[in-house]
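Fill-in record for Methyltransferase domain-containing protein.
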Amino acid sequence: MKSQFHEDFYSFAKYYDIAFDFKDVPQECRFLEDVFQKHSKSHLNSFIEFGAGPALHCLEMAKSLQSVTAVDLSAEMTTYAQDKAAKAGVVVHCECADMIKYQSENRYDLAVLLMDSTSYLLSNEAVIEHLRSVAQILNPGGLYILEMSHPKSVFEISKSTASEWEMEKDGIKVKIQWGSPSDTFDPVSQITNVSLKMEYQDGERVGTLKDQSPQRCFTATEFAALVAASGVFEIVDWYGAMSTGVPFNNAEAAWRMVPVLRKS
């Protein structure tokens, strides 16, 4: 089934959460805090994540921050994240909303868009509108950090992300295949119709989900031009992973493109 943002997959929020349980969320949050301290003159009090999924980074940030918001377009994921926050005993405002046109009366010090969720911004107009909407809800000098696919994936120089893995938690097994050799790529739009297959075994509940959705990849110069065109941010740094020790270059360790934007 073809979808807009792999919404069928995201509707299985619990299995999604298990599938990505390998991520070191506390370490990634320390990275976000370190980058904020480096490039902002203010104290970090508030945090918002777009495409938050199960809101794991929000749950971690809520342990020390006054205001934390998780935004996702999946209603199932938003409900799941809110339940996780309640069980963890932290306060996270979970909101089902479109990140492209997002509006809020609240203001934040730090915003993030992680795990290559930028790839669902398929047009230049969508990117610019999104950047402008984020800038409106940031405090003066606020930061916006994005974790994107490395540009080498655009040119197929190397396979920069794993495409198949298995995870197990609490007796539930989840196997993911992200992408397929048969997926079509349009070099004009830089959009790939990315297929996804999830197999799950949850007690007597066993099944397979297949989904397909368009995802866009970006070059560094292209993204920098879009940021400049938005007129609301400046790029103050780049990293090659969610780690201050990995510079943005073509080395093997640099498997991501992580631009750091500051509100103009």
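KEY FINDING: The first helix runs from residue 7 to 11.
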